[in-house]
Amino acid sequence: MADYRTPSPLARDAMAYVLAGGRGTRLYEMTDRRAKPAVYFGGKSRIIDFALSNALNSGIRRISVATQYQAHSLIRHLQRGWNFLRTERNESFDVLPASQRVREDMWYAGTADAVYQNMDIIQDYGPRYIVVLAGDHIYKMDYEIMLRQHVDTGADVTIGCLEVPRLEARGFGVMHVDGRDRVVDFVEKPADPPGIPDKPDMALASMGIYVFETRFLMDQLRRDAATEGSSRDFGKDIIPYLVKNGSAWAHRFNRSCVRSANEDVAYWRDVGTVDAYWKANIDLTDPLPQLDLYDRDWPIWTYAEITPPAKFVHDLDGRRGQAVASLVSGGCIVSGASVNRTLLSTGSKVHSYSELHEAVVLPYCEIGRGVRLRKVVLDRGVNVPEGLVVGEDPEFDRKWFRRTDEGVTLITQPMIDRYLASR
């Protein structure tokens, strides 16, 4: 008799291992006190919430997060927002800080080493598959589909890939594939990226997402750890070795990206620069943004602070509390101020006669009276003094704050303090 049962989801037998130790140096002062995955995004979330939510929504119930640089803010967020996974339901959530578990003088040397040093913890759970994820990108993806491809092809490793215009792929690790998407060569930041056979003007860029059978990965990590001169990194060592000596397959992101009815494109963003971070947040204020945060079928889980509703007060000419084409989070108060195409994160306050345009305001900022801010990013907890104007005089902005070549100004509290001390 034929067996018509639906195959058991592979995600049940998988662990998501999230690499979240990156500093994110191109975000400058935003990562002075927090790792890049812990940076706020979209008013309520952190960047890492996207990879974690993808894992959870895909059906993966065993999750580990490896941390290293400036980990306190990230660990606190994970403890508060992701402590609902329960061992009695065969679920687990582990935070794995670099703790010199191999040698007293050895922190995580690279992305592969961040897995190698915790092999015993992974093996205790016994997952059949391991999905290695970067914790610092914004996207929605069903990892079950990638797991299914991995099993169907019999691959040693399956590599998540973005289709990008060929000449824009020069800053990525690029997969050279055959007509079946088997990887025949891996090139790091090539001057002349190889095209895709069916789309010669496009290239396949690595997303830093890998699927392995756990036993196979453990063997490869041991081999790599014994290899003199290895940098202990997936992109530099493990993947090139398997492309040459094993079976590596590319998985195209557009096959497993999650899109609501309001999303037209396969959305993926690296918000690793101030300009990219500002733009990705401001894009959310569009009437139909390319990233739909309102999709209840694929929610972005996070630590939800208990806050009162947002509040708008005063209704006089020149002193009207209003927000247009903006996202305003819980606990915010817009008091006689005008907010346009702006994102206000939790608990921020804007006082009378102030004007904000294309501002990304992180949690618990306070903006004084008569302030004008245009095209700025305010770090968490910044108190903007009365009358400050940023975004209209590039020389002033560059002198006191961090202004990018594209005209975005990053403002932190130490910058404000330095400005005030000069007056």
TrEMBL record:
Pathway: Glycan biosynthesis; glycogen biosynthesis. GO terms for biological process: glycogen biosynthetic process. Residues 17-285 form the Nucleotidyl transferase domain. CDD domains: ADP_Glucose_PP (cd02508), LbH_G1P_AT_C (cd04651). Alpha-D-glucose 1-phosphate binds at residues 108, 173, 188-189, 206. Keywords: ATP-binding, Carbohydrate metabolism, Glycogen biosynthesis, Glycogen metabolism, Nucleotide-binding, Nucleotidyltransferase, Transferase. It comes from the Bacteria. The keyword Nucleotidyltransferase applies. Gene3D superfamilies: Hexapeptide repeat proteins, Spore Coat Polysaccharide Biosynthesis Protein SpsA, Chain A. GO terms for molecular function: ATP binding; glucose-1-phosphate adenylyltransferase activity. PANTHER family: GLUCOSE-1-PHOSPHATE ADENYLYLTRANSFERASE, GLUCOSE-1-PHOSPHATE ADENYLYLTRANSFERASE-RELATED. NCBIfam families: glgC, PRK00725.1, PRK00844.1. Homotetramer. This is Glucose-1-phosphate adenylyltransferase.
